[in-house]
Structure formats: structure tokens, C-alpha cells
Design brief:
- This protein is mainly alpha-helical.
- The protein has one domain (2-419): Glycosyltransferase.
- Helix content is 50%, strand content 5%.
- It contains 18 helices and 9 strands.
- Strands 3-6-7 form a 3-stranded antiparallel β-sheet. It has a two-stranded antiparallel ribbon with strand order 1-2. The chain has a two-stranded antiparallel sheet with strand order 4-5.
- A hairpin with a 4-residue loop joins β4 and β5 (283-284).
- The radius of gyration is 20 Å and the shape is globular.
Length: 425
């Protein structure tokens, strides 16, 4: 069964491969997405190391001069997606968006490096990437943490990767919609509208894009100028983990300046994460920097914090919280608490399960010794493939596949779940 599933997963990666980058799925997402590519590279690494490195190198070839790595690169024209380059207008030779995504590249590069069968190639390609990844991390702390707290804010829900999470509702409600240019959504032509963000949310998403565009995409200004500034524990955990992994790589490759800076960023971030912990909720919460208040929303972002080296007591509490969720649901891990009134098991990030998040949570909990919960998460992830195919995401109650089909990073995570345990990590 596992060999058949791996074969099917590899076929999806091949289907969505565009030579030097992958698209998440045909039709719905026809370009290169930032964290999709990095996580997909982990899947490629199991059977084509060179192609895995190329995926990440292609992404960083489009890094901005200030260090930012954009969330979408529009390699080829395709009018099947909105908003396209004509909306973003970032002025790049190869068009990109003007916002970023979770900084998972440092983690992905370490995973490829540690598992390398061609160690000479891995050392060469990692050494070339490390300064670029370090520059991206430096950009985060310079432009998204201007007060030096140790934690960064996202300024658009799309940056989180969790576009319509309940976590953003209150902050997004403060974003105006006046002056939004007329547009036609394309996503609802490829996927069930009931599985996607609402039209009202899209109006606010586009207002933010226009607002940043009017500011010339000047990252020295955008943080303070955005009405949406939220510190997401999951987003920060990914960045902190990437900083720690980059420090390890830099130490291994004799790049001491990057190692020292990355280690300091990771250590400061871990300490600062404690400000987001809620005993009452048994997990980390988001913080709305615009109004200086916690966001009492029990979403997956607070559970994803396990991906970083958080204290054992916190990892244990989160493992218990996930185990409790598992008593209510046949499949783990939902992107929102099913007992909350806002829960919607089929609407994008307001309830459905995403295998990439399952993978990162399981990875973090495994390091913390929470074996039983990890086994449940991995088992449920593979059962979802049997039930719903290689979908974008899944209903936690029924296991139905939702959103796009033949999804690249879902396939990559299946390869990783089934093959990764046989290789050093």
C-alpha cells in the first residue's frame, strides 16, 4: 500500500513540475508559491536531489534587493488566477507579489542537506543559499519587528498561508473596502465557492494590496502603515525553527557570522513566544499588534508553535490539547476548534485539515517525545489520502477532499511521511 501511495504521489509532483519550479495544482494555482515550493522540495529530495535544490534556488533567484522573498512568482502569463501581476504592479522584471509567506526555506534546506546522498553537491548548493536565506530572516526582523520584540507580524492574511483563518476576523474587519477596484475572482471557478474565503474577505484582501501598492511597496513603511498587523505564533515558530536550522547549517559549513546571528534570532524568538502562551486555552494565541491585544481564537496557529523548540511543558500541553481534539473528530488536526461557533469543516482554514501543517506539528512533537500523538497524526494523514485523495485540504469529520485536487505539497508530505522515517532527520 505504501509503495502504491508513493508512486501516486510522485506522479503528482511530475504532473505539476514546470522544469525549475512546481505549481501547487493545475488551474487553481498556476504559479510558484513560496512555502509550497520549499515543502515540495522535501518530497523531491527523496528521489531527485538535484531537482529538489533547483526548486528552492528558483525561488531565491527572485528575492528582492531588501531581502524579502515574495509569496508568488509569476513565471508565465496565466489569466486563470486573480490577483495577477496587473494588480500587484511590483515593477519586477519577472513579476512577483509584494508580500511574503512563512519562512520554511531554512528548515527545508537543512532537511535536504542532512539526507543528502551527494554530499559534495549538497554542501555547494547549501553554501550558496545560506546568505540569501539569512538575508530574508534579517529582513523579517528589520521590517516586521521594528520595535525589536523578537517576534514578527504579518501585514496581510495571505502572508500567513492561512488566508481566511478565524484568527484574522477582528483585525480584518478593521480593513476598509472603499475604493477597491472592481475585480472578478478566479478561484471560485476552479473550486467550490463554499470551500473558499468569502467575497467580503476578498475585498479586504485586495484593499490591503492596493494600499501597499500606493506606498510603492516600501517595506520600511508597510508594517506601521498597515491596519492589519498580527503576530501569529505558527508563522513565528516556522521562522524561529528556520533560524535555528540555518545556525546549524552555518556552523557545519564554517560560516560563523551567519551562525551567530541566526542563533541569536532563534533564541530571542523562543523567549518572546512565551508572551503568546495562554494557560486558559492550553496553547499559544495570536497577538493583534494594531490594538495591543491577544486574539482569543483557538486555531491551528497556536498548535503549530510546536514546530519550534518551545519548552517541554508547552509541547506537552499542546499534545494534550490535540489529543482532546482527537476525541471529538475521526481525523486530526483541524485548523480550528470544532466546538467554536466559527468552525467550518470545509472552508479553507476555518476547520479543514492540511497535511503540511500535520507534518510540521508532528515533526515538532516528535522532537518533544510526544510519540502517541505523533502516531495518531501520521496515521490520520495517510487515512485521509485513502478517503479523499491528494486534495488541497480535508474535512475533519468526513475526510472528504476539498479545494484543489492533485496537490503538490500534499503529495510531497505523503512521500515524507512514508519515506522520511527510513532516513536520518
Amino acid at each position: 500500500m505504501s509503495d502504491t501511495m508513493i508512486t501516486a504521489a510522485r506522479a503528482i509532483l511530475a504532473q505539476n513540475d514546470r522544469g525549475t519550479y512546481t505549481v501547487p495544482t493545475q488551474g487553481l494555482y498556476p504559479f510558484q508559491w513560496n512555502w509550497d515550493s520549499c515543502l515540495s522540495a522535501i518530497g523531491f529530495g527523496h528521489f531527485d536531489e538535484a531537482r529538489a535544490w533547483t526548486e528552492i534556488e528558483t525561488l531565491f533567484a527572485h528575492q528582492w534587493d531588501d531581502g524579502m522573498v515574495p509569496h508568488i512568482i509569476f513565471h508565465e502569463f496565466d489569466d486563470g488566477y486573480f490577483p495577477g501581476p496587473d494588480v500587484w504592479r511590483t515593477g519586477r522584471a519577472v513579476p512577483t507579489t509584494g508580500i511574503t509567506q512563512p519562512a520554511v526555506a531554512g528548515f527545508a534546506v537543512r532537511r535536504l542537506f542532512e539526507r543528502a546522498r551527494d554530499s559534495d553537491m549538497a554542501r555547494s548548493r547549501a553554501r550558496a543559499l545560506l546568505p540569501r536565506i539569512a538575508a530574508w530572516h534579517d529582513w523579517f526582523f528589520r521590517c516586521r519587528d521594528p520595535r525589536g520584540t523578537g517576534l514578527v507580524a504579518i501585514i496581510h492574511p495571505w502572508e500567513s498561508g492561512r488566508d481566511n483563518s478565524v484568527d484574522w476576523d477582528a483585525a480584518l474587519d478593521r480593513v476598509p473596502t472603499e475604493g477597491v477596484e472592481p475585480f472578478t475572482r478566479r478561484d471560485t471557478q476552479h473550486a467550490n465557492p463554499a470551500h473558499r474565503p468569502t467575497d467580503d474577505q476578498y475585498n479586504r484582501f485586495i484593499w490591503l494590496v492596493q494600499h501597499f501598492r500606493d506606498l510603492g511597496w516600501d517595506n520600511a513603511k508597510l508594517h506601521d502603515a498597515s491596519p492589519f498587523r498580527v503576530v501569529d505564533p505558527g508563522f513565528n515558530a516556522i521562522l524561529i525553527r528556520a533560524c535555528a536550522d540555518l545556525a546549524w547549517l552555518a556552523e557545519t559549513l564554517d560560516m560563523p557570522e551567519i551562525a551567530a546571528r541566526s542563533r541569536a534570532q532563534a533564541d530571542k524568538g523562543i523567549a518572546a513566544m512565551e508572551t503568546l502562551w495562554s494557560d486558559a486555552h492550553g496553547q499559544y494565541l495570536c497577538f493583534d499588534r494594531a490594538i495591543d491585544a491577544m486574539v482569543p481564537s483557538q486555531s491551528i496557529g497556536g498548535l503549530l508553535a510546536t514546530f519550534a523548540a518551545i519548552p517541554q511543558s508547552r509541547a506537552s500541553a499542546i499534545a494534550q490539547r490535540i489529543a482532546t481534539l482527537g476525541e471529538k473528530l475521526p481525523y486530526l488536526v483541524p485548523s480550528h476548534d470544532p466546538s467554536a461557533p466559527e468552525y467550518d469543516g470545509k472552508r479553507y482554514w476555518r476547520g479543514p485539515i492540511w497535511l503540511i501543517v500535520n507534518y510540521m506539528i508532528a515533526d515538532g512533537l516528535a522532537a518533544a517525545g510526544q510519540t502517541a500523538v505523533v502516531e495518531r497524526i501520521v496515521s490520520d494523514s495517510l487515512r485521509l489520502i485513502d478517503r479523499g485523495g491528494f486534495a488541497e485540504y480535508y474535512d475533519p469529520m468526513t475526510g472528504e477532499g476539498c479545494g484543489g485536487g492533485s496537490f503538490t505539497w500534499t503529495a510531497a508530505m505523503v512521500i515524507e511521511f512514508l519515506t522520511g522515517e527510513r532516513q536520518p532527520a
